[in-house]
Design a protein that fits this description.
single chain; about 230 residues; alpha+beta; Dihydrodipicolinate Reductase, domain 2; 5-stranded mixed β-sheet; 4-stranded mixed β-sheet; 7 helices; 9 strands; about 25% strand; extended; RNA polymerase recycling bacterial C-terminal domain-containing protein
Length: about 230
Amino acid sequence: IEETREARALMGAGILHHLHQNRYQPELKAGILERIPKNLEPMNHTVVLEACRQFGFETVEKSGEATWYIEFGNKALIDSLPGVLGGSRWMGTFDREEGVRRENIDFFAAGHPLVEGILMELEDTHRGEVALLEVHQAPEEAAGFVGWYKVGAFLKPRCFDLEGKARPDWEILFDCDAPRWKPARAKDWGLVPEAMPHWDQLVRNVFEKHVDLGPLIAAGAFRLIPMPR
C-alpha cells in the first residue's frame, strides 16, 4: 500500500511539473504585450460595426467613449450568427478604459459573444473577402490592389499597383489605419462591364503573379486620396 501511495505521489508531482512548464513569469509581460496590435480596439470597432451594418443589425451610438447599442432584431439580413440568438441586444463599448469605468455595460472585445460570432461568420463564409476601398489622407493620389495573406498566425497586407508591381510603401496604410478606409461603390469608379470589360482578368493577373506570398485570405482594389492642399 505504501509503495502505491508513493507511486501516486510521484505521478502527481510529474503531472504538476508538466502543467507548470513555461508558466507565466513577470519578465514575459513585455513580449506578450508586443504581440497585441496597438490599434486592436479601433480596428475591432470598425470591423464589428461595419459587419453589423451589413447584417442589418440595429446600431445606435450612445453617450460615452465608443459606446453603442446593438440589436440582432427582426430586420436583420441574416438568419443566424454563431453562438448568438436572434433577438439578442447589447449595450457596450469598444474602449477598454470606458469598459472598466462602466461595469454595467459590455466590453466588445475578444471573447464577447457578438464579436466572436461576427468573426466566425466572416471566417466561415465568403463575406468580406473582396472589397473596393478609398483610403483618405494618403501621401499621394494613386490606385492599386491590396491582398491580405496569412503569415503564421497573422494577416499581412501586401500592396501592388495596377500593373502588379509590389508597393511595400503603401502597406502601412492598411496595416494600422483602418479608420481611414471607406467602402466604395463600383459604379462610382466607373467599374461597369461596358467601361472596363476586362477588369476581372486584370485582378486575376495581378494576384496570380504573387501566389508565392502564401494563402490569400482577402483582396481589394483601392484608391489613395490625398489630403486637400
